Amino acid sequence: MKQARKKSITFAHVFLGNGLSNANPLPYEAIFNFGDSISDTGNAATNHPAMPSNSPYGSTYFKHPSGRLSNGRLILDFIVEAYGLPMLPAYLNLTDGQDIKKGVNFAYAGSTALDQTILKQKSINVDAAAYSLSTQLDSFKKLKPSLCKSEEECDSYFKNSLFLVGEIGGNDINAIIPYKNITKLRELVPLIVEAISNTTTQLIKEGVVELVIPGNFPIGCNSAVLATVNTDKEGDYDQFGCLTTYNAFIEYYNEQLKKAIETLRQQNPNVKITYFDYYGAAKRLFQAPKQYGGITFAYVFLGNGLSNANPLPYEAIFNFGDSISDTGNAATNHPAMPSNSPYGSTYFKHPSGRLSNGRLILDFIVEAYGLPMLPTYLNLTNGQDIKKGVNFAYAGSTALDQTILKQKSINVDAAAYSLSTQLDWFKKFKPSLCKSKEECDSYFKKSLFLVGEIGGNDINAIIPYKNITKLRELVPLIVEAISNTTTQLIKEGVVELVIPGNFPIGCNSAVLATVNTDKEGDYDPFGCLTTYNAFIEYYNEQLKKAIETLRQQNPNVKITYFDYYGAAKHLFQAPQQYGFSSGKLETFKACCGKGEPYGLSAQFPCGSFSATVCSDPSKHINWDGPHFTEAAYRLIAKGLVEGPFANPSMKSPPFKII
C-alpha cells in the first residue's frame, strides 16, 4: 500500500468513502492571517500586555488571558479548527524551532489599513498604526524564506495555503467615529480599499493563489459606537436598535471593497479571492438574537443554515462516565497527573483536567452540536450557565458501586464516584435546571444524555490477573448498572440517550503492556490481543441486548448505541491511512510515558518527571497507555456523530468534525 502523508484526516475517508487524496488529506496545509483585534491572537499583547493579558479576557474558553480581545476564541480560531489546523501562532511570539508550516498570524490589535504617515497627514492618530497592513506584509516577506526556499517550492506550498487579508480598516474608521462626521468617514474609504487591494496584489506576486478578504461589520449595531454616538433621536435607529447612518456607511464601504475585489479577480484569473460578508453574518445576530442564543459567530458566518424554529438539534448535553469523558471532575479532588504538563499541551496549551493531550470524544460531540464545552459538576460556581449541559464523568470511576466491587475483592479507589453516585449528583442538581414536571419535560425533550463509556475501570481492575472467566462474571453486573441508570434517567423525564460500548482493549497499550505475552498466537494480524478483544465483543453484545430491552420498555425514548469498538478498531487496523505510525509495535506505542516495548511503565507514568513525550502526538493513537490522543478521539467522534458507528444514527450535527 502506498504510504499516506501522516496528517490528521477525516474519519469519513474510509468509513463513508469520501475520497480524500492521499497527497492532500486537508483542504489547506496552512493558513496565514493579516488584520487587527478581530483576529489578533497575541501579537499586540506581546508589546503591550495591558487589558488582553488581564482577567476576564479568555475566561470562557481558555480559562486564562490568551492575547485575544474576547472571552474566548475568535472567528479565525473557528476557521482554522474547521479546516483541521492548529490555532495559528502569533508572529511576534515565534520561537526558534517552532512549527510555522501550518500558518502564522500577523494580525495586530489596533492596527490600521493605512500607514501611520497617511493617517497623520489627515490628523488621525492611531498608536497601533505602526503595525499597519503594510507592516504586517513586510513581516510576512521576512518570514517567507523560513517557509520555502525556491520559487518552485513556494508555488507548491502556497498552492495549498489560504491567506486572510483582514478584517482591516476598522480602526481607521473607529478613529473618526467620535467626530460623528460621515463625510470624513467616506473620504477614507478609497484609501482603505486601495491599501487592501495593494496588499492583496503583493501577496499574489509572492505566489499566493487563494485569499479571503472580509468586509466590515455593521458598526451601527456595535456597543462602542452606540455609546460614542449616543443620540436620543429615535429616527437615528432602525427597528432593531442599530444606528442607520453608520450601517449605511459600512454598506457603502463594503460595496467599494467588493468592486475592488472584482477588479483583482479580473486582473488575476488564476487566483481565487473570496469575499467574507461580515456585515450580513453579524447583522443576523442583532436582528434575531434569541434565535442564535448559543451559536458561535463562525457558524452563522460560514453559512450553515439553521431552522428558525430550532436553531440547534440539542439545547443541552449531559454526560456520565469515566476518564474517557472526564473534563475536570477528578482533577478537582486529586490534582495529580492530569494537572501536569504535557497533559492538554496540544490543544489547550495547558493541563485541562482531561487525560489526553487535547480534546476528548465528548468535546468533539458538543462542538459538533454547536454547544460550549461542558462545565464539570464539581467545579460549578454560583451564576454559571448550566442550561447547556453539565459533565458528571469522573476519571477512574466504575459502573459498579464500591461495595459490590469490595465483595468481589476488587479495589478501585474512584469507585466512590461510580455511576450511581453521578446519577445522585444529577438528581440533586435537577432543580437548578427546571422546577415543574412540565418545565422539565420541555427542557429534557431538547437535551441529550450520554451514559458512558462506563465499566472500563471495573474491567481494568481485573486485567492484571489475566483471568477472562473473572472478567465475564462482571459483565451482567455492569450491564445491569448501566440499564438501571438509564431507567432512572427516563423516569426523570429524559427522552434521548446515548449508551456507548467499550473499546477494543486488546489493542490498548496499557493492556498490551500488562498482559505482555510473547506467544504469537495470542495476537491478531494487527498486533491486538485476540482474547481480550473477543471479551469486549461479548460485553458489547450483552450491552446491546440490554439496550434493546430498554427500547421495548420505553418506546417513546430514543436510545442510541455508540460502537466505540468498531470506531476505534479501524484506526489500529489501518493506522497509516489516518496519519498514524504503523508497525506491530509502533502503532501501539504511547506518546507519553517511558518504557519498552509500548512506551509505558508503572515507574514513569505520563506527567512524571522522568517520563518522555513524543514530538508529534498526531502520529500516535495512544497518549498515555489507557487513553487516546486528541487525533484519535477526533476520528472516533466523527464516526459516531456522522456515522456509521451509531445505531440509530444521531441527529445531523450543524458542525462537521474535521
How does this model look, in words?
By secondary structure, the protein is α/β, with parallel strands linked by helices. The chain has two domains: 27-301, Rossmann fold (3-Layer(aba) Sandwich); 316-557, no CATH class. Helix content is 37%, strand content 7%. It is built from 23 helices and eleven strands. The protein has helices at 12-15, 43-47, 75-82, 116-121, 133-147, 151-159, 170-174, 182-205, 223-229, 244-267, 278-287, 297-301, 329-333, 361-368, 402-407, 419-429, 437-444, 456-460, 468-491, 509-515, 530-553, 564-573, 630-641; strands spanning 30-34, 161-165, 210-214, 272-276, 316-320, 447-451, 496-500, 558-562, 592-593, 612-613, 646-647. It has a five-stranded mixed β-sheet. Helix 8 (182-205) runs parallel beside helix 10 (244-267), helix 19 (468-491) runs parallel beside helix 21 (530-553) and helix 22 crosses helix 23 (630-641). The longest helix is centred in the first third of the chain and has 24 residues, at 182-205. The protein is globular and about 85 Å long.
